[in-house]
Amino acid sequence: MNYLTRQFRPAASAAIRANPAAIAVSGSRGYHQKVLDHYNKPRNVGSMDKDDVNVGTGLVGAPACGDVMKLQIRVDDNGIISDVKFKTFGCGSAIASSSYLTELVRGMSLDEAGKVKNTAIAKELSLPPVKCMFLSKLVLVM
């Protein structure tokens, strides 16, 4: 064991014991726990029948960062979103924001869902305003 290891190991151990959540954050590029949760256990992944007259499909991509997202919503006779599915190929932020969006808009009217702001998604997931994260909002508008 060298000098630096002997000097800093006790301090690091104490810091980890004081804040065990720091391990998850530092080991995952600083993502907030909500992002990690939606990334590791994404909600509503899948597809719906695109020929169903009550299903709308949006597809967007951001060539700059390589993210692509497909979002499908099923709207009932009252104009309420009754089901939501997504498939996202991209970074953790894009996947997490897509997953979060599906939970957020289920049960909303189309008008309400159209008013969801990118900043609300970023704030809820503690994400910086990066383009790939905004795919989920963009595809909803389509």
From TrEMBL:
Residues in NIF system FeS cluster assembly NifU N-terminal domain copies: 31-132
Gene Ontology BP term (one): iron-sulfur cluster assembly
GO MF, one example: iron-sulfur cluster binding
SUPFAM superfamilies: SufE/NifU (SSF82649)
InterPro entries xref list: NIF_FeS_clus_asmbl_NifU_N
Pfam families: NifU_N (PF01592)
Identification of the protein by name: NifU-like N terminal domain-containing protein
Source organism: Lipomyces tetrasporus
Taxonomic path: Eukaryota, Fungi, Dikarya, Ascomycota, Saccharomycotina
